Structure prediction request, 398 residues.
Amino acid sequence: MSLTLSNKAKKVKPSSTLAITAKAKELKAQGLDVVGFGAGEPDFNTPENINKVAIEAIESGFTKYTPASGTNELKEAVCRKFKEFNKLNYEPNQIVISNGGKHSLTNVFSAILNPGDEVIIPAPYWLSYPEIVKLADGVPVFVRGGKEQGYKVTVEQLQAVTTDKTKALILNTPNNPTGMIYTREELEAIAKYVVDNDIYVVSDEMYEHLVYNGNEHVSIASLGEEIYKRTITVSGVSKSYAMTGWRIGYTGSSAEIAKLMSSIQSHQTSNPNSIAQKATTEALNGPQDTVLAMVKEFDKRRQYMYNRISKMPLVDALEPLGAFYVFIDLGEALKKEYKGKVIGTSAEFARILIEDYNVAVIPCADFGFDDHIRLSYAISLEQIEKGLDRIESFLKSL
Ligand SMILES: Cc1ncc(COP(=O)(O)O)c(C=O)c1O
Prediction:
């Protein structure tokens, strides 16, 4: 036996969003005034009432193992939230609490995929989906939702790539990186496609509370008994409650899938952090005014950012209606020359911005759209204004 390494592990791409954020931090540490639009997390603190419950959990000794799939108390809180917010009826034995939404997704694909099973991923997509699917021995199949169709995919497109190996579709609304949301009618059509083809839909609803302009968040599983049976609903507290570091995500699924995920988790990580589970119970059961305040602030920044970007030369964006990202089409800008060379790719555009303008943005090749960048508005309005001034002056110089 030679000292070779796992071929599967070697194929995993490191997260490029984390790399850009690290670069921005490094430049800041050198004393440079960098504006970072890379953030994938709210800039707000975790609300006080949640912190307080966590401190009480430590002080009262709630610091031991819990059941591997989470405490009953938290599962009940999740069921109540699913019922009231998502119009979904789940019992505690259908809930698995995991170490963040990413871990929930990992468990889902480990539970449903066999080697070679295909998973349809609409592009643009959150960059971890293809890697998570591959790690579970699945095969990602991409479908492009172009700008002209609101960065969303149609049933006709889904049907065209469906084969007898198709096992699941990933749906992410509100969407990272586009900020788009699927309407009830669009979801009804997709639900029919899922049921007709007898596949699963993995519905990533991590940004469910972050919806603007009076739009509603609709959970696909709420659209009927048949689609409910085929849906695994994934959510968590990272984005909606400013709890990214606590690492709690959860799923609602059939009891059969929940049991498989629970077994997998019992060997891989055991229970998610006991203190974070107490904190999450408070997040879901406690007052929701801090969430509303965050949404209001995000909305203000969203409008400011979208208005400014709409007026900039060479770039274009659709109005985002959810999450906290603006997805920018660089189409014309990429054809321009900078320092004697055609810019060409979003990675090159982002490199110029960070090196010459001290602005960090996320190039979206790893999200399936190489001619776009993603800007997060999970930073202060003051920073947004400064960063957009710099991007605008770069564009005007081209
Ligand atoms: C669409 C989407 N799903 C899931 C996650 C994972 O969330 P968590 O931080 O809870 O693992 C993220 C985080 O960026 C995300 O953007």
About this structure: The pocket of pyridoxal-5'-phosphate is lined by residues 40, 100-102, 126, 172, 176, 204, 206, 236, 238, 244, 249 (CB under 6 Å). Residues 214 and 321 are 9 Å apart (CA to CA). The mean pLDDT is 96.
